[in-house]
């Protein structure tokens, strides 16, 4: 690959899996996160760099991009992956302060990443790739909290909008929408929903495999999303922009409960 990438939320989960995969394919990776110990350890292990970055703060996001320029002289890939799940509950009782905090990270943070990556990609005159993490919750209602759903739908909008502006500069902007990936965020949500603190990633993956996939017995993994990001960042996806790559085992496209009609009786 030979490219320079900044990955927000790169210390664990999808971000960490992507950082490792990018590095294995020759990329120089900067991990931008607030989990300093995890992030620094991972960056050291892949020959990358770590920077403390709260994406809701524009100065932090600008500093992450500047690190790429200082370290390698350019930025080729921005993966806006950082996000939080936010408050659950009825819209009638929605905590607006908590919602504003979520939007600041999920939406404003993504805008910060696009803004500062695009600015330097334009200056570099070599194009670039910007990837944003959305969610199946942006496609189907009822899969997540109202705040989270709102934020992930907004990410689709800003990605498509900026793809229209930035294409003339050779900059591609795309989204990935995962479903049922057993990241720490989803595992914590399942623990709360089920009232069981001992629920782990393997159990969550099995639940998704049974109830949220057309591929019975096949649950999602963080590596599935990492490979999707690697594809979008590669030259193999050179003619793809303004696209939302849904990685969901077919969940949002069709109903697995109807599979009986294809069976011989």
Describe it for me?
The protein is α/β, with parallel strands linked by helices. The chain folds into 2 domains: 206 residues, NAD(P)-binding Rossmann-like Domain (Rossmann fold), CATH 3.40.50.720; 38 residues, no CATH class. Helix content is 46%, strand content 14%. β5, α5 and β6 form a beta-alpha-beta unit. The protein is globular and about 50 Å long. The relative contact order is 0.13. It holds the Pfam family adh_short_C2. Belongs to the short-chain dehydrogenases/reductases (SDR) family.
How do the helices and strands line up, and which of them pair or pack?
Elements (H helix, E strand, L loop, with lengths): L3 E5 L4 H12 L3 E6 L2 H10 L3 E4 L5 H15 L4 E4 L15 H29 L3 E6 L12 H21 L4 E8 L5 H11 L6 H11 L10 H12 L10 E4 L18
Parallel strand pairs: 1-2, 1-4, 2-3, 4-5, 5-6, 6-7
Helix pairs in contact: 1-8, 3-4, 4-5
GO molecular function: oxidoreductase activity
InterPro entries: NAD(P)-bd_dom_sf (IPR036291), SDR_fam (IPR002347)
Keywords: Oxidoreductase
